[in-house]
Structure formats: C-alpha cells, structure tokens
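Journal club prep — side note

Before the paper discussion, L.F. wants everyone to see what a predicted structure for a comparable chain looks like in token form. Sequence:
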Amino acid sequence: MLFRKSLLLTRKIHTLINHKLYPLDNRQSETYNQLVKNSREEFLSTGCLYLTNFLTQSTLSTILQEINSIVMHSSQTLFQSYVQHTENLYNISKNFNEIESSSKTIIAYDQIPTDSLLRKIYLSNSLIQFLTDVIEIYPQLYPSCDKLGALYINIYRQSNKLSWHTDHSHFFVNLLLQQASNNNEGIFEYKTDKIISRNDFQSGGLVLFNGRNYVHRVTEIHSSKLPRINAILTYDCTREHYLSDYVLQKFFGRTT
C-alpha cells in the first residue's frame, strides 16, 4: 500500500483526474476550450458547475484512506464545529426565528499531510488556471495563504448539517469525496425560484458554486452509517489571502 501511494505521489496532476474528460494540462486543445466554454455557461446560467467523475477512482480511494488515517490518529484534535447563524453565515440575529445552526467535523489545512494527494490537487497550476478561465472575472486566481482555511475537509456524521446560508466569496470549489450511505441525507440544495436538490452529486465530482448569490445548505444526516465527506479548496484573486481571526475562531475553533 505504501509503495502504491508513493507511485501516486510522483505522478503528474493529469494522472490524478480523469484526463480524457478534463484535459486541464492541455490549454491549447479544442477539447479544453470547449470544456471551458461549456463550464462557464453552466456556472453563469445556474450558479452551479458540476464536473462528474473529476477524480480517478484510485485517486479518490487514496484520499479517503488519507482522511481515515487522520481521523484515526488525530480524532482528539479535530474540531467539532457547531455554529449558530442567520442566512449570513457570519452573523447572529437577536430574532430567534432567524437563527439556524450548523455542525460538522473539520480537518484543517495544517492537519492534512504535506504529501497528501488532496494538497497536490489543490496546488495544481492546471486546476487553478482552469478555474480562472471558467470564472473569467478575475485575471488570475491563487491558492489561499491561510494555514487553516486554505484547504479543509468537512465530515458530516449523524445529526450534522449545514443550514441555509450565503457566502462572502463569489465562489467556492468543492471536491465530493464520499456521499452519505442514505441517498436522501446530506444532500446539497440551493434556492433559485425553487429549491434545487442535487441528488445527482456523486463521489469524485468537482463542484464550482456561486455561494454569494444563491442561498444553499447540506441537509441533515439522520441515520447514514457512512458520513458525507467533502473538501473545500479556497482560492482568491489576490496572492495574500488570509481568513480573519474572527472567522478562524468561529469555524475552526482556533486562530493558529
């Protein structure tokens, strides 16, 4: 197993994703240009771009093994997040009827091994350039410099959920790593003129979502034996992106 992981770590990023579907390292190709065009149209028209089977099965399997190892060896230090908020995730209202609650387990960036495949994907220039091309409104995107929130993993176990909210950022990038074992739990939903339930999301997919303009949530996990696991990849249009101490304390339980 260690030898297999070693081989994966030495491979290029295009071998970690489904390169035939998503030739991110070949920006001059017609296939890449068509992918960007279609992706941009879907993102702009719906607020939600979903790239199915973005990761190869072997990449997905290795990442889940890495996460299981973190949970096994660091369970006492992982933050059990419980946040009360309004539809603005950063605010608390005095009106009880407006208050929502969200809960999950968080693996912060500094708890993810430096040799993790997840880090390799996150820092991939090919992926960053692809996202820049799709979103288009920023000349260039960069990985966050934040030691906790640059890249983090959400684990939704029984009784966990992410309630209705909007984000400060124009977009977020989400890697779907494991869906809840009950098909009607842990569903990503968002509001347009109606509630859209993305029951089609599958492990290994990538989601680019406009969280500022669309209220969204993850429905509660009730009885699923398998938790819902996803990774949030934080990028910004500036080279020096850091989360505030307030945000770090609220969502990660610490500032360093």
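L.F.'s comment for the group: Residues 57-74 form the longest helix (18 residues). Keep this in mind when we get to the figures.
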